[in-house]
Request: fold
Amino acid sequence: MTHKGPRGGWSSDECPAGAFARRAFLQGTVAAGLVGAAGGGPLDHDADTAGRKNAGTGTIPFHGYHQAGIATPPQPTGTFASFDVMVADRTELTDLFRSLTAEARFLTAGGMPPKTPPDDGILGLQVVPDDLTFTLALGRTLFDGRYGLSSRKPAQLVTMEPFRHDDLNPAMAQGDLLIQLCAAHRDTLVHALLSVLARTGGAMKPRWRIDCQRNPPRPVGIPRDWFGFKDGISNPDTTDAATMDQLVWVQPHTAEPAWTAGGTYQVLRSIHFNLDKWAKVPLAEQERIFGRRKASGAPMYDLADNASDTLDPIYTNDPQGLVTPLNSHVRLANPQTPQTAATSAILRRSYDYNLTLDPRGGLDLGHAFCCFQRELNTYIAMQTRLEGEALVPFISPRGGGYFFAVPGVRDEHDYYARGLLT
Ligand code: HEM
Reply:
């Protein structure tokens, strides 16, 4: 994660601690937050003297100018859960966000859980941090008339309208809030979700959820998706602060409301793969559909099975698309032309889902496509180009939505979206 100093951040005395616990549903979380902050905190890596790997002891810092779970290298498991907010007014909404903050702060640090309501014990006596990140994003509907927030809506935030080939199921789309949970192990995510539900006591109603994973590298490097292609190669360097500022993080003093600085637009699309159809496509054609080699992940011009996937695709000497077809996935996503330069870079942080059986037959495997960008319009322009891609017959986008991932929680006095709510 790229950490930055507070730029125009809130001072701690703007957030009186006494205002912290107002509603009954807050009580457990407040206790949890305090335990996490004041000792009983995370186990540290060195304490794992038994030499066990994956013991759940890794901690990803929760506080920062940006939320974790965006520039953070993707952990092996993920859950995206969407909720509708049920509270009556802005005061209760603020309480809910304080409650979510305290819960996220505790779960990501680990420690002894509060006694009320009792922890479910899934992670043992002491909650392990397990590289958990908790990332909160807001949907457009939160800015309707209910909480008087419409004038503070992120400028480009809209409801995701179906693209030409989408098969959107409204029950699996949008929502007031999106919580992205990522960790080393799935039990940590289930525990986190149960904990959030228990401690927010009906203030949020679950709407839809996608559980997913990052496949391990086969054999090395970038993981493969269910189509067997290395996926996630061309991506902005998340360790380069200038790149992230340019492409991902909303900057202060722009057309966006001031509170959004440090946040980013998040897009989630659950995309079913038609693998029966895909299996009938010869390898050479599959490669032309994606515009990269399948075994190596290298650009089309390198035929060697052991070619490097770090080679850059180059289209200047291939204007007709004889090597990399003009309607291939990578070439439409990023055509490398002056006209598309401003709409060709997003930060992809996708996962693979593996649900039970597809009601329409076969396995329900697909992509929890997730990306972050400073401007939502960048994504919309890119996806509009991809309406013409050769991959269309093999995918079926069924859910997801557009959200705004709020700026980071600066310190123990701050809470999610404080600048929006105050
Ligand atoms: C079924 C869903 C998708 C699959 C299976 C998929 C797969 C891939 C693969 C295999 C690559 C090439 C390797 C790499 O650079 O990572 C790639 C590249 C890329 N994809 Fe996707 N993708 C999907 C959806 C999307 C969507 C919805 C977008 C954005 C609207 C997108 C944007 C990109 C971009 C920007 C690149 C890099 C292009 C470049 O600069 O070379 N992808 N994708």
Observations:
- Confidence is low (pLDDT under 50) at residues 1-53.
- Residues 225, 227, 229-234, 269, 271, 290, 292, 313, 329-330, 333-334, 346, 367, 369, 379, 382-383, 386, 395 surround protoporphyrin IX containing FE (CB under 6 Å).
- The CA atoms of residues 290 and 329 lie 5 Å apart.
